[in-house]
Amino acid sequence: MSDSDLSTPIADVPGVGRPAVRALAEQGLGIVGELAGRSWPELAALHGVGPSAGRRLQAVLAEHGASFQDPPAAETRSAVVTRGATGRNAADLRTRSTGAAPEDHIASLGARRRREGAALLAMFGEATGAPATMWGPSMIGYGEVHYRYATGREGDTFQLGFSPRAADLALYGLQGHPRSEELLERLGPHRRGAGCVWVRSLEAVDTDILAELVGHAWESGPPPA
Fold first, then answer.
1. pLDDT band at 200 (very low <50, low <70, confident <90, very high)
2. Separation of alpha carbons 159 and 221, rounded Å
3. Any idea where the YdhG-like domain is (predicted)?
4. Is residue 164 a contact partner of residue 119, using CB atoms and an 8 Å limit?
5. Cα–Cα distance measured from residue 136 to residue 94, given in angstroms and rounded to the nearest whole number
6. How far is CA 57 from CA 20, 123, 127, in A?
7. Which pairing describes strands 132-135 and 154-164: parallel, antiparallel, or unpaired?
8. Which pTM value belongs to this model?
9. Is 21 exposed, middle or buried (0-12, 13-18, 19+ CB in 10 A)?
């Protein structure tokens, strides 16, 4: 839900720039509710009023049962993941690559996770041929990709990776590839989340299948957004 309502000043609606605010103010339009029933094509012809501002304002109107006349078309944009970092990250993005050594992180774990973390470090390194990088305090990633969601939110992250957590081993980037489903069915006991596969321990799964899955995911390229 939006924090805006029909009594909200247009200038306070996120994503509506100053040129649009000025142009609408010159038409006597200062609050969102005053836009209800107004012709969007006429307003869009004003200098400084673009489709992005129109979509933001229409979203607030629609949330409260109102609308422009002939409102702007909804933006059709799909999520995209591409190889390589760009440095374009959402301002509030917290998970970033660090200069910490993955080996030091693994050495700090309990005996079981230290052993499994070292095995995964070797497995992912051999399958990808890429150096391991710490992302945030506990994730170890390989390769870099850039994602951009349909909402416009974007950021850099790793292509494949893992995190030897206390409760489960988290494995990232292994789903959505041509043979992912087949290999996961043969892996052994696991759970699946959004972009993540969880296993209790390496002893519970077929590590040869896991190594094959990691290699397949790496060769297939960036995972789906």
1. very high
2. 8
3. 113-217
4. no
5. 8
6. 11, 50, 49
7. unpaired
8. 0.63
9. buried
Give me the helix-helix angle, 207-220 and 180-187, nearest 10°.
Answer: 160
In angstroms, the CA 53 to CA 63 distance is 16
Question: Which residues share a beta bridge with 150?
Answer: none
Q: Which amino acid is at 169?
A: L
Q: Which residues lie closer than 8 Å to 201 by C-beta, 6 or more apart?
A: 112, 116, 169
Whole-angstrom distance, CA of residue 159 vs CA of residue 199: 19
Closest of 106, 119, 123, 114 to residue 160, by C-alpha: 123
One-letter amino acid of 127: A
Please check whether residue 159 is in contact with residue 176, taking contact to mean a CB–CB distance below 8 angstroms. Answer: no
pLDDT digits (tens, 9 = 90+) for 104-161: 999 999 999 999 999 999 999 999 999 999 999 999 999 998 877 665 667 788 999 9
**Domains of the chain: which residue ranges?**
10-63, 80-220
Strand partners, 132: 142
User: Are 127 and 211 a contacting pair, CB within 8 Å?
Assistant: yes
CATH number for domain 80-220, candidates 3.90.1150, 1.10.10, 3.30.70, 1.20.58:
3.90.1150
- Amino acid of residue 108: S
